[in-house]
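dude i think i finally got it to work??
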Amino acid sequence: MPKITPFLTFDRNQWADLRKSVPLTLTEQDLKPLLGFNEDISLEEVSTIYLPLARLINYYIEENIKRQEVLHRFLDVKSPKVPYIIGIAGSVSVGKSTSARILQALLSEWPEKRKVDLITTDGFLYPLATLKQKELLKKKGFPQSYDLPRLIEFVSDIKSGKREVKSPIYSHLTYDIIPDQYNVVDQPDIVILEGLNVLQGRRNPNSANSVFVSDFVDFSLYVDADEELLKKWYINRFLKFRRGAFADPNSYFHHYSKLSEQEAINIASSIWDEINGLNLKQNILPSRERANLILVKGDDHAIQTVKLRK
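look at this
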């Protein structure tokens, strides 16, 4: 008896066929600055995976606009423009930031010109001093390390059509929030919200009256890979940072630049096991099945399978 699942599953070729005749407007030069530090995604990957995805999302957006128009006609009101929110979740080192940037580029250049803003939830982490005070430094990235009320207020304001909503900015160099600097979201057509835990919902039955970021998301995407691959990618990225960004004297991790390669591998492996891998299993992975679409990566960061909720 076939397994009953809420998802339709596509291999690369099946999914690529759903691109239809949508043209690829990105060039190699456009793609290069969109890629993550440890990724080498080709234009073929963009054509095969991301163009069909952008086509699907545009269908959803068109339907969403029609529903808003129906409501406004019924109420006989002219309401402020309400952005369509796309949530992108997944583990550390899986490449969700790259997926978000590619989607932003494609959706911005669609025939129906739309303003697309990209916000990462890193900006809503507590400042480093607060994390130290709360003894959460080794839980950074876990749900309790975020200022969730502030994040929810931010998403709620966007979804209410509010003008000039501010988002804090996080620095990966200093490992901290940048004081008095903000991204401003001013009624775009689409907001891509990317972060570790954007798909989390009600796991505790006692939290039935709570509000979650996922409550405001119109379309959700989870970037997936086996943990063995995720750990390998994390270690490789750590080694590249050790030779690059960590060498900057202003880097929070500058002391790691002095490590030998084997010492760096050992430390990166421990960080994964004690923090990132633990967060994945406890908090991130349980949210995967809530996504509208799951992109499953293979060894070379290429998407092997696409799962679309029925």
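The mean pLDDT is 90.
im so relieved honestly
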